[in-house]
Every structure is written in structure tokens, then in C-alpha cells.
TrEMBL record:
Zn(2+) binds at residues 52, 79, 88. The active site is at residue 54. It catalyses: 5-amino-6-(5-phospho-D-ribitylamino)uracil + NADP(+) = 5-amino-6-(5-phospho-D-ribosylamino)uracil + NADPH + H(+); 2,5-diamino-6-hydroxy-4-(5-phosphoribosylamino)-pyrimidine + H2O + H(+) = 5-amino-6-(5-phospho-D-ribosylamino)uracil + NH4(+). This is Riboflavin biosynthesis protein RibD. Its EC number is 3.5.4.26, 1.1.1.193. It comes from Flavobacterium succinicans. NADP(+) binds at residues 158, 179, 205, 209. In the N-terminal section; belongs to the cytidine and deoxycytidylate deaminase family. In the C-terminal section; belongs to the HTP reductase family. Pathway: Cofactor biosynthesis; riboflavin biosynthesis; 5-amino-6-(D-ribitylamino)uracil from GTP: step 2/4; Cofactor biosynthesis; riboflavin biosynthesis; 5-amino-6-(D-ribitylamino)uracil from GTP: step 3/4. Residues 3-127 form the CMP/dCMP-type deaminase domain. The keyword Kinase does not apply. The keyword Glycoprotein does not apply.
């Protein structure tokens, strides 16, 4: 049907995607207001602490008399609690809108059905579960964080045509990356970084490549840098220690002194470190992490089946020998090319 609920929830999802990377710790949300088969208002959540999608949508309606006969569509359940902004459910009630269509229930315990209850108690007709899977997929990071109590995990690496992530030994004998991919692929990686909250590597990656782990080739927020450094082997002149970006360093030492923007945390390396790392990232309210470490670090997550997506580049170079790439299987989401590079995106979910 031309004016089916699915049509408008799809539009909500489109709008919500404008907030990718800027709404943390809030989810991405889109909303439209419809009257007489026409969209009369639209909005999406832009940034935590700023108005939510429903507020923007309702405020964009020019003829407010139409609200009394309108339906508001929203990809995620309207909030019912006071946070940095007032409850959206209360705004909808005050506006006189008689019907609300919701994509999916909010998994955050502060909302989790309370917004729907508030609307129904006010006599508003509420329809829930329109394109529910699509709306949950939109906020896969938010849902994973709240339902599984861990960040959404993205594995990323680049490998040569013959399956190596780096030659051995480094032919340049210097602390710098040996590029496998072309500049277009590298810029895409920086875009990805701007969309996630954290980026994680191991000691050897920092020692060998001295990476900055930032978004210098893309406009956007730098992710929190997360480093595994059991024995404190990271050289003092490493970029990850420059305090320019919030950085978490996990170590076995209990006497490391934290500085501004550089926090040391001790974990037990005699136990499996992956569950400890994920628990710590959850404590720091980090909803997503890109694992860009070497094969050893990435393979730990694969072997424990603790990953959600893998993004694997295959460049045009050949190394003949070197450090083998991680071994992984998963459901193919996408296979594409960027110039001379191939990109394969795998999912760990059906």
C-alpha cells in the first residue's frame, strides 16, 4: 500500500542514519509526522544532549492544527524519562497526536516499554513492531551493548594476495605501516573509525607500526584508543601515548600512572583476557569497537566466537612470506572492490 506503515518507518530509518557516529551513547532515531497521507514533519536525533527525533519532527510541522489528526512514526520507542532532555512521550501527548507507530521497543532499561505504556495510558493508539528487525539492525551497536552487556565488535584487517598481513621481516626497518591497500580503502577505514566508539590493537602493532589510530583522513570523532600492552613494551615516543585522544591501556602492571587522556588499567593475563577487555569496555560505556590489531589479537576474538562483523581487505601486493592473516568463516554481507582492492564483509549472525 502506498501509505503503509512500512513506508514511513523506512523513511525513519533513512533519517536516523544521518546520526551515525554522532549520537553516542544514544541510539540513532528517525521520526516522521504524517497527516492525510502526506509527510508534514521530519526529524532525526543528531547528538546526545540535543533534541530527540520526535522533537525535531513535531517542531518542523508548519500547520500545527494538523497534529490532531496526524500519526507520528518513529524507529525506536519514545523515551519516557528525564535525561539531558525531557521525555518525548510527554511531548507527543501534549501535541495531541492520536496515533504512534513504533519500529521497535527500546532495550535500555530506563525506557523498555515505559514510553509505550505512557502513550497508551494517555489514550493514544500505539502500533509496535513495524520493520522491527530493520530497526534493531539500524542500532546494532546500541542493542548489543544493552542486551549482551558488551560492545559491538568489528574485526578489520588487510591481507596480501597470498594471505599475509605483513612481510617478515619489515624491509624498511622503521616503525611505520607497510601499506597493503590503496588510499581509497585507507580513507574508508578512517570513515569507519569515525562511526565507532573505540579502536583496539595489541602491543606488537604499536611497536611495529607506531599507528595514530585516528580519523585524520575523514571528518569525524576520533575513537577511544584501546591498547593491550601486557609488559609495558610500548616505546615512550609512540603516537598512542601522546594524550591527543582518549586512550585506554590494559597491562599486567599495577603501578602504571595514568595521565590526562591516557588511562592504565590492570587485568589478569593469566586468565582469558577477551572477556576482561569486553567487561572493561562495557564499564567505560563504549558501545562499539574496531579490532585492528595483528593476527594474534584478532584470532583470539575469532577463536572465542566473540565478534559481530569482519571487514577484510585483499590488496594487490604479494609478500611471498610473512605474518599469516587471521582465519575466519562467516556469512557474507558484502563483496565489493575499491580500485585495486577487494573488500569482503562477513557477519557472525544469520
Amino acid at each position: 500500500m502506498m501509505n503503509s506503515p512500512e513506508k514511513y518507518i523506512k523513511r525513519c530509518i533513512e533519517l536516523a542514519k544521518n546520526g551515525l557516529g554522532t549520537t553516542y551513547p544514544n541510539p540513532m532515531v528517525g521520526s516522521v509526522v504524517v497527516a492525510n497521507g502526506q509527510i508534514i514533519g521530519e526529524g532525526w536525533h543528531r547528538k546526545a544532549g540535543e533534541p530527540h527525533a520526535e522533537v525535531h519532527a513535531i517542531n518542523s510541522v508548519k500547520d500545527t492544527s494538523l497534529l490532531k489528526e496526524a500519526t507520528i512514526y518513529v524507529s525506536l520507542e519514545p523515551c519516557s524519562h528525564f535525561g539531558k532532555t525531557p521525555p518525548c512521550a510527554d511531548l507527543i501527548v501534549r501535541s495531541g497526536i492520536p496515533k504512534v507507530v513504533i519500529g521497535t521497543v527500546d532495550p535500555n532499561y530506563q525506557v523498555a516499554g515505559k514510553g509505550i505504556e505512557r502513550l497508551k495510558n494517555a489514550g493514544i493508539e500505539v502500533l509496535v513492531g513495524v520493520l522491527e528487525k530493520e530497526c534493531q539492525a539500524l542500532n546494532k551497536r546500541f542493542f548489543t551493548f544493552h542486551n549482551q552487556k558488551r560492545p559491538y565488535i568489528i574485526l578489520k584487517w588487510a591481507e596480501s594476495q597470498d594471505g599475509f598481513i605483513a612481510p617478515s621481516p619489515n624491509p624498511y626497518h622503521q616503525r611505520a605501516p607497510i601499506w597493503i591497500t590503496n588510499p581509497y580503502s585507507r580513507q574508508l577505514v578512517h570513515k569507519w573509525r569515525s562511526e565507532e566508539q573505540a579502536i583496539l590493537v595489541g602491543t606488537q602493532t604499536v611497536v611495529a607500526d607506531n599507528p595514530k589510530l585516528d580519523t585524520r583522513d575523514w571528518f569525524g570523532q576520533h575513537p577511544t584508543r584501546v591498547i593491550i600492552d601486557r609488559e609495558g613494551r610500548i616505546p615512550a615516543d609512540s603516537f598512542v601515548l601522546d594524550q591527543s585522544v582518549p586512550t585506554l591501556i590494559f597491562t599486567s602492571a599495577t603501578d602504571r600512572v595514568s595521565k590526562e587522556n591516557c588511562l592504565f588499567e590492570a587485568i589478569d593475563f593469566n586468565q582469558n583476557i577477551v572477556p576482561q577487555l569486553l567487561a572493561k569496555l562495557y564499564e567505560h560505556r563504549l558501545q562499539s569497537v574496531i579490532i585492528e590489531g595483528g593476527t594474534t589479537t584478532i584470532q583470539h576474538f575469532i577463536d572465542l566466537n566473540m565478534w559481530d562483523e569482519a571487514r577484510i581487505f585483499k590488496g594487490a601486493v604479494t609478500f611471498t612470506s610473512g605474518i599469516p592473516a587471521p582465519q575466519i568463516t562467516g556469512h557474507c554481507l558484502e563483496k565489493t572492490t575499491y580500485g585495486t582492492d577487494e573488500l569482503l564483509i562477513l557477519s557472525n549472525h544469520d
